[in-house]
Request: fold
Amino acid sequence: KAGVTQTPRYLIKTRGQQVTLSCSPISGHRSVSWYQQTPGQGLQFLFEYFSETQRNKGNFPGRFSGRQFSNSRSEMNVSTLELGDSALYLCASSFRTLLRQGNEQFFGPGTRLTVL
Amino acid sequence: LAKTTQPISMDSYEGQEVNITCSHNNIATNDYITWYQQFPSQGPRFIIQGYKTKVTNEVASLFIPADRKSSTLSLPRVSLSDTAVYYCLVGDGGQNFVFGPGTRLSVLP
Reply:
């Protein structure tokens, strides 16, 4: 069965702009989580959506937001981009909501965002 | 606030057993511990997950002591293809999930 897909794979934006990233989970998976990966900060959890509701949230400012549609596809939006937002953004899908229920996440290849 | 620590790097030879430990002093009572493997230019890949004692699957074992303040990923008989970065992931007791800094494993021939 098809894996997690993310679009676009690469993106270049300038400071102050906003960006929307898309994630399509594995068929049947209802949880989508988003992560930011940078050389300096490593992997950081952004948020998780399950059945269209945000279930968990990391320590990121309100400029980072997301949503999930009825088909479980998810989008992440970053407004007023800053240079420090340059990163690899990963999404992961799973059947159940995150760690607390003993759950395996499947990651997509990521979207590499460069902010100039 | 959850904080996880891992060794930054480790070297091993093919055929050896490798043990990577993650310390997570503030893990919440009901949180699981998950380990991931990541190759360059790829998303992380699930290896194993556990709550307490020992868990084993076809690729690894996970040892978790009774106090759950640490966990050890054990990779039996590593090969060159196991060269990657390994991360532990735990919940912080709230709504956040915290990755360890990652351990870069180099397997030498």
In short: Chain B has a mean pLDDT of 92. Chain B has no helices and eleven strands.
